[in-house]
Amino acid sequence: TPKPTATPKPTATPKPTATPVPTVTPAVSEITVNAKKVADFNTYTCSERGEEAKAIVLQLREQQPHLRGTKPMLEELRKNYDFSEEDILFAVYTSGWPEEALFYANSIIKNNNFSRLLLWDSLNDDFSYIESDVRYALENCTADWGQEALDHTQWLLDQDFGRSYVPLVESLKLRLFTDEDIEYVLANLTIDWIAE
Question: Is the pLDDT reported for residue 34 higher than 60?
């Protein structure tokens, strides 16, 4: 009598493999924001026209004071010159802008009570200066950070902000003043605090 054969075990259905997500190289316009974060633009690659664009940047900077920031210079090259975006970025960010950054830092400080960190953010984000130029500006500008904090506090008091300790300190922290700046304010501010 033939022996019964074993029933074959069902094979597992293979799990579907995930379709690989293609990597997308960002368009030049997408790297513009990140480009200014790079410390050394001298390694930024460009075509031979990059050096030509850089020469134009240096010339324009001398001849047209309204182009003293990286943002207006970028706009000028994009609007009026036929360079690739890569060459424009190379030209603007390898030209060095420490004196221009210092000029804007002093202009901001003259009209506003900024903390060091708030001024850093403004120069870096609003004006698109690279880190080395911002650092130069902050190290050489006319600001006395404790006095900036004190002047801002006095402005708040003049606006009827109130004389409660905690809200004033919180306001200074929102303006990114350091603990040292706030201590300077508390040591030099003549005020009768109102208890909360």
Answer: no
